[in-house]
Design a protein that fits this description.
The complex is a heterodimer. By secondary structure, chain A is of the alpha/beta class. Helices cover 57% and strands 10% of the residues of chain A. In chain A, strands 7-6-5-8-9-11-10-12 form an 8-stranded mixed sheet, sandwiched between helices. In chain A, α22 (595-623) runs antiparallel to α26. The longest helix of chain A has 30 residues, at 107-136. Chain A starts with 7 loop residues before the first helix and ends in a 12-residue tail after the last helix. The relative contact order of chain A is 0.11. Chain B has a 7-stranded mixed sheet with strand order 5-4-3-6-7-8-9. In chain B, 34% of the residues lie in helices and 22% in strands. Chain B has helices spanning 2-16, 25-41, 43-46, 53-61, 93-103, 120-127, 139-151, 188-193; strands at 82-85, 88-90, 110-114, 131-136, 157-161, 174-179, 194-204, 212-218, 224-229. In chain B, a hairpin with a 5-residue loop joins β8 (212-218) and β9 (224-229). Chain B has one domain (2-229): Vaccinia Virus protein VP39 (Rossmann fold, 3-Layer(aba) Sandwich). Chain B is an alpha/beta fold. The chains are: A alpha/beta, B alpha/beta. β13 of chain A pairs parallel with β9 (224-229) of chain B, so a sheet runs across the interface.
């Protein structure tokens, strides 16, 4: 018999457990990239979340024995989560995995499978407990789900807030405590509850600190820097953006000079380097501020062309580019950096005006105009930090609009061979110039190539003959090639850093003067313009060519296969296979009648919810001015609003709820991009209000289909509740993984289109009689 | 006919060095065949049908299993990079062979290697008759390589613990320089220590992911330029990409 009254302590317990689970997930996403790199971490954790679905399946199979033992099983599952969460982290950290070896052997795949299985355990335990609550109180699913989501919102807010002030490993103690607290709140009597609280506090307090420390891959640049003789750490702190380590060495000094001319008379000076998440953020001359070698970089070109410039350096890092710009004669330098550095870090100071904010937002809000705007694409100058959305058509158009007459937008990028990311940059600039330029793009671009680095200059007014003469003279002296300059002779393109064909020139000519879209579609890599909607700069894999690159991995092809899309696709494939099989298992015991429609419903709303969540949180994080904290706030707000919607969902029609969500997803698809552009230049209050309004309205709608559907199932066939819970769990994992993949491949609008379609499928599958047998629980 | 002769030579090298009682002889022969197959597959890109016979012979003589950690010995002759600890790798044999060939070195040449690692590349160069000066930044690797090379009789290799960025000016100029770990730029001291007419070979790409090799050439008049060798076939305008 279903109990209709739900004790408040149990609801609070659900919230605590849910908070612990979401906090745990977010902390893992922060901890594992040091060992596994971010894309692999994302894939492994999304797979581990399948533990949620697996718990639903297990519960569906054992519910008749489990429900009568709720009083022991639920606290046991919560305690189990509290213990398993840090233990799984420690075990997963000990599994030897080197993702860089994925193209070469089976061992890393086996290791990653081990990591995934270990991490699935805590999620399984937590979901088993939560699933039991839904099974027991299915008819009041709205109330349970409301507390569940409110807890998740709290977990998101706590985790995001925590990483601003303490190492994420220490946050695992909080996760442990919350797990035990959830158990204590649901304990059948006071004495066991007290014992559980004591156990939780003791376990969390006594858990060895070294088992909460993330391992760092020895192949990460920070490990390489620390391995040298005499390396010393100037600062090593966890920041909101990841672990920041600043390294210098007297005996084996680091040097930073991307694309240094082979004819440079000056040696680059010893430097201190800042690493974020193990990857290079920036390096500055240290201890002496010697800048002479900077003049030998292709990056210096803009400052040589515009002496005495007022310069805006975006994503300025420790200040290498701002410092060198001053040395090269810039009259005024504004440096914008989103990552706040801990004290003790040797940042460039002097006459530089530092602004700590998100660079895209600064561009949108500033009223100043600059002679040079200096941007570094992910590459030799910067390989870490939050995504800035600077090199998108919209972002570069914004930057071009902030130039003085005759001003230059200067973009640094890596010179990979075959050319890929730098051509994405070029296509993006060409598209932006078509929007705001006052001359054809071919007249407005100068493209310079050195060893390992390129510099692309864009002048919306076009380059003068004097500019071009000066560029040629500087490049001749430095030994830089000129893949593109207005009025160029093709022989200038491939003289100093020779390729067997002038690929950079041929590509630049096609992009700037030819059939750009035709060329982009023929090219073996995806090099089309990057937009706010599809911001995957550096994501160039063309799936049709995959087998060719994979086949060539022994002879230089391994580096041409990007890890992120492959890992994402593998994770989606595994999730579909594993989830699909697991969903079908209980049906062999429970019978298939009616399951198809409920399966489509709960699957559809799972995919739809995650599609909306991913697109919304990413976009609003940027609107709020910080892809890290802003996204955390947006997530917490969305979950809280969804919780409120769920709590008020009693009596709501599942079909109508799903239809409303489909409309909301479609509305977001149409309106989210324009909303961002409309408010990103506004003040903080207005941006916050806009984000809050969207989050509240959308969250309210998204929170309703699950509890209304689950109540309907519980009213009709309570034993189907765990299965529906499991299907929704699996679908949520697929939805999240698909959303991440589709965002990069097709854009956020496509993700929201998928979400709308998924909700329509769910609506079509309702109303929820679903033809199942009428049972009592 | 040339290809036939090349194949015969590889076979000779691969089998001729298989000494009785050498448990790795067959694995080494397989490795040589794999390297040759990769060279053939990439001949259009690397500009040659086969590598210099002396290079292949050196590769067939050097006991690669001595240069990998014990747990990797049974895979020492696979045509792939292997970890050697401290975040370093022993390069893929095909890349070692190609780098050596691109350096164009021979008997008596003075060669600087930056990044000793396990010492395998230095041993291959020594097997070609070069005088090798190799610098390693990680103390444990430098010491292990020094001992290993001495034990295996590579007397023409000198190992130094230090910062390879500065090269080894006391022994400059060098006929060739091989840099096994690329920075974001070519170190000016190395350019200065390269003899006019000499070549510097640098792989581009991270550990396990070498994708191009750069040959920096210093002309007789001191002018410096570079040439990129991309093993993978890449035809941008038609979109074809084959090994």
């Amino acid at each position: 018999m279903e109990r209709q009254r739900i004790p408040l302590s149990l609801l609070v317990s659900v919230a605590a457990l849910s908070a612990a689970v979401l906090g745990y997930e977010l902390l893992l996403l922060r901890l594992f990239p040091l060992k596994l790199w971010a894309p692999v971490t994302g894939a492994v954790i999304s797979l581990a979340l399948l533990g949620y679905g697996a718990a639903g399946t297990t519960l569906a199979l054992v519910q008749r024995r489990a429900v009568p033992r709720f009083g022991r099983l639920y606290p046991g599952a919560a305690c189990g989560f509290g213990l398993a969460a840090p233990a799984a982290f420690a075990v997963a950290e000990a599994v030897p995995v080197n993702p860089l070896e994925l193209p070469w052997s089976l061992e890393p795949w086996i290791g990653l499978t081990g990591v995934y299985l270990v991490l699935a355990v805590p999620f399984f335990l937590a979901a088993f407990g939560l699933g039991l609550v839904y099974r027991l109180h299915g008819r009041r699913a709205g109330r349970v789900y409301g507390w569940d989501l409110a807890g998740a919102a709290l977990g998101a807010a706590l985790a995001v807030g925590f990483v601003h002030v303490a190492p994420p490993g220490a946050g695992l103690r909080g996760v442990m405590t919350l797990g035990f607290a959830a158990a204590a709140l649901a304990a059948p009597a006071r004495r066991p509850a007290g014992a559980l609280v004591a156990m939780g506090v003791l376990t969390a307090g006594l858990w060895p600190a070294r088992m909460l420390e993330p391992a760092i891959s020895p192949y990460k640049p920070v490990s390489q820097a620390l391995a040298g003789q005499g390396a010393r750490v100037l600062a090593d702190r966890w920041t909101a953006w990841g672990r920041m380590t600043v390294v210098a060495s007297d005996r084996v000094p680091l040097r930073h000079a991307p694309g240094l001319s082979l004819t440079c008379p000056d040696d680059p000076p010893p430097s201190a380097a800042a690493f974020l998440g193990g990857e290079l953020l920036d390096a500055v001359p240290f201890p002496e501020r010697r800048w002479a070698a900077a003049a030998c970089l292709p990056w210096a070109l803009a400052y040589r062309l515009r002496p005495g410039a007022s310069a805006l350096v975006l994503e300025a890092g420790l200040g290498f580019r701002p410092g060198a710009a001053l040395w090269l004669g810039a009259a005024k330098v504004v440096a914008v950096e989103p990552v706040r550095f801990p004290t003790g870090v040797p940042r460039t100071g002097g006459a530089i005006r530092w602004v700590w904010t998100d660079p895209r937002g600064f561009l949108a809000r500033t009223r100043d105009r600059f002679d040079v705007i200096d941007v570094a694409a992910p590459g030799p100058f910067r390989r870490a930090g939050p995504p800035a959305d600077l090199i998108t058509v919209e972002g570069t158009a914004l930057a071009l609009g902030r130039l003085t007459e005759g001003g230059l937008l200067s973009v640094s990028a890596g010179a990979e061979v075959p050319p890929r990311t730098c051509l994405q940059v070029l296509s993006t600039l060409a598209a932006a110039l078509e929007r705001v330029g006052r001359a054809p793009p071919a007249r407005c671009v100068v493209f310079v190539r050195s060893w390992g680095a390129v510099q692309i200059l864009a002048a919306p007014d076009g380059f003068t003959g004097r500019d071009i003469d000066r560029v040629r003279a500087l490049c001749d002296r430095a030994g830089f090639d000129l893949p593109w300059v207005p009025g160029m002779d093709p022989t200038w393109a491939n003289r100093w850093h020779r390729l067997d064909r002038p690929w950079f020139f041929e590509a630049a000519r096609e992009i700037l003067t030819g059939d750009r879209q035709g060329f982009e579609s023929r090219y073996p890599f995806r090099i089309g313009a990057v937009t706010d909607d599809r911001p995957g700069l550096g994501r160039t894999l063309r799936w049709g060519r995959l087998s060719e690159w994979l086949g060539a991995r022994r002879v230089g092809g391994a580096g041409l296969v990007e890890g992120e899309p492959l890992v994402q696709a593998t994770a989606i494939g595994l999730a579909v296979v594993f989830g699909g099989l697991t969903i079908l298992v209980p049906l062999t015991r429970q019978g298939l009648r009616g399951s198809g429609r409920s399966g489509w419903y709960f699957g559809g709303i799972g995919v739809g919810f995650m599609g909306c969540e991913v697109a919304l949180v990413e976009t609003l994080g940027r609107v709020l001015g910080d892809p890290t904290a802003g996204a955390g706030l947006a997530l917490a707000g969305l979950l809280a609003a969804a919780g409120a919607g769920a709590a008020r969902s009693r009596g709501a029609s599942p079909r109508q709820s799903a239809l409303v969500c489909a409309a909301a997803a479609a509305g977001l698809g149409l309106g989210l991009g324009p909303l961002r552009l409309a408010v990103e230049g506004a003040g903080g209050v207005l941006r916050f209000a806009a984000a809050a309004a969207v989050v509240a309205a959308t969250g309210w709608a998204l929170g309703r289909p699950f509890p209304s559907g689950l109540s309907a199932v519980a009213g009709h066939d309570p034993e189907r509740v765990p299965w529906a819970w499991g299907v929704n769990g699996f679908a949520s994992v697929w939805g999240a993984a698909l959303a991440g993949f589709l965002t990069a491949e097709q854009g956020r609008r496509a993700v929201l289109g998928l979400a709308a379609a998924a909700y329509l499928v769910a609506a079509a599958a309702g109303p929820l009689g679903w033809g199942g047998r009428k049972r009592s629980g | 006919m040339r290809r036939l002769l090349g194949g015969a030579l590889v076979l000779l090298v691969a089998t001729g060095t298989a000494r009785a009682g050498d448990p790795y002889a067959r694995a080494r022969a397989r490795m040589i065949r794999a390297v040759q197959a990769d060279v053939t597959a990439t001949r259009a890109r690397i500009g040659r049908d086969r590598l210099a016979p002396a290079v292949m012979e050196a590769l067939a003589r050097v006991p690669r299993h001595e240069f990998v950690p014990p747990e990797w010995k049974d895979r020492a002759y696979e045509n792939r990079p292997l970890p050697i600890g401290y975040g370093q790798t022993i390069s893929q044999p095909y890349i070692v062979a190609l780098m050596t060939d691109l350096a164009g070195v021979g008997l008596g040449d003075r060669v600087l290697e930056v990044g000793t690692g396990s010492g395998y590349q230095a041993a291959v160069l020594a097997a070609l008759g070069c005088r090798v000066f190799t610098v390693e930044i990680i103390p444990a690797l430098a010491e292990a390589a020094r001992r290993r090379l001495r034990r295996l009789g590579y007397d023409r290799v000198r190992v130094r613990l230090g910062d390879g960025y500065y090269g080894w000016p006391e022994h400059a100029p060098f006929d060739a320089i091989l840099v096994t770990a690329a920075a974001d730029h070519v170190p000016p001291p190395l350019v200065r220590q390269l003899r006019p007419g000499g070549r510097m070979v640098i792989p581009v790409g991270g550990a396990f992911r070498v994708q191009t090799l750069t040959v920096v050439e210093k002309a007789a008049d001191g002018r410096v330029s570079s040439r990129e060798v991309l093993p993978v076939r890449f035809v941008p305008l038609t979109g074809g990409a084959r090994p």
